[in-house]
Predict the structure.
Amino acid sequence: MKNLSRFFAVALVTAIVSYGAVLGQSQEQTAIMRIVNGIPQILVSQSILQSAFEAEYNDGTIISSIVIESTVPPYYYLVGKGANNGDSRTMGILLVYRPSDSSWVIGTTMVAIDIKHACSGNNCVSCDFATNQGQIVGCNCLQKGDPDKPGYCNHGLYQTTTNPGHLGDFY
């Protein structure tokens, strides 16, 4: 799974930079989310984000939904949920508030680095993040596939580098 973070970073950067170019924005200006009337709204095309999350796994995982999950504000995560061979796949990326335009972006601040969390189920058809004080700390299996066998979700944590072509291009 170590190579997955490189695939995802390149795919997501390409997708978001392309989307920003369509809007006439530079990659530093690409907003992922805004809160409108108290409701988080994703500003990047769902299909672009689905493709980027699928590229991260690069193992046949199909992403069926992209959502914003909030724990204890200001913690918001861009989350892709899907499955591979009946087992759940969930990946989340921490978003950081940018006050200049009231948007949330992938990037860093003094207290947050861009982090990707991944849950991969083993005999689990529904994984979700476990949180502590608003931050993702692991994964839970919400529903086993075969009730007579053990089911669990593995948690992976990845930090994006500042190498060209990675998510670090956004900060």
Notes: The first strand starts at residue 33 and ends at 36. Residues 2-170 form one domain.
